[in-house]
Design a protein that fits this description.
By secondary structure, the protein is mostly beta strands. It contains 1 helix and 20 strands. The chain has a single domain, classed as Glycosyl hydrolase domain, family 43 (Tachylectin-2, Chain A), CATH 2.115.10. A hairpin with a 5-residue loop joins β7 and β8. The longest helix is centred in the N-terminal third of the chain and has 4 residues.
Length: 308
Amino acid sequence: MTSVSYGRIFDPANDLPTGYTHASNPVGIVVPGSESLIRIFFSSRDTSGKSHVFSADYKFENRKFGLLSTSIKPILSPGEPGLFDCDGISVGSVVMDEEVLRLYYVGWQLQKSVPWINTIGLALSDDFGKSFTKSGRVPVMDRSEEDPFSMSYPWVEKVNDRYEMWYGSNLVWGKSKQDMLHVIKRANSVDGKQWVRNSADLFQLTKDMTAMSRPSALRTSDKTILLLSIKDGNNNYGIWQAQTINEIDWDLKKMEIESTGLWDEKSQSYGSFFIFENTVFILYNGNEFGKTGFGVAELELSDRKFTV
């Protein structure tokens, strides 16, 4: 598969309210009832380094993404001290479920013995993402025997009458970020809140990989395509793709998205799929995990029969 980059479409230095930096982990939806309104959710950091959720609205015309507006304040913020998301909220995925938009996110809790402990939360919106209400004060997926250390970026889809999740989990943890080995796992749910986990790692880390994170899935008529952010031994992230026809045997390859400037010349990460007018786009971050903003690329596919 090949891709065509449209370049950067959001620059935090120019497009964010005063007092916030970064535009990380972008995910997009087409707003129901609109012809061409695309709403992108992302995480931005305040002056204390805590992440909040913002949104930006775009119109796609003449092969260009035009920024219409950015939320003037966060639409979702960290919880009160001591809660699972008290030190930040990072976007995982958004799922339209009839008239309710579900936002699955990572809740951050900073620690002393390890850098952080992350778990998975859920927020709900009845106005297509203009505002959100958390489903509760505790995670919808907490640590467990299968995931005892820390978890990351959930990608959730509704498949028929069930919810399917891909998420990241630490195999080991330690005092430093470099002590982390992080893999991708799966879980499923009837209601989107109570999850049954599959303890098996989806991929095996090779000797030159230390972490896989931020999965994003696309299902066509004959295969499943998964985007992954993979960190190498030099602490650099790149976007990879994995394809399967049976969801058992995967073909994993580095994905090449053309760099369009200084903003993404060193790193591309946190890719996510969204579909607009039967075209697949990939939102992604550039250098420094969203400090330079996010861009978009178009994925060139021969099979455009999407099942989710």
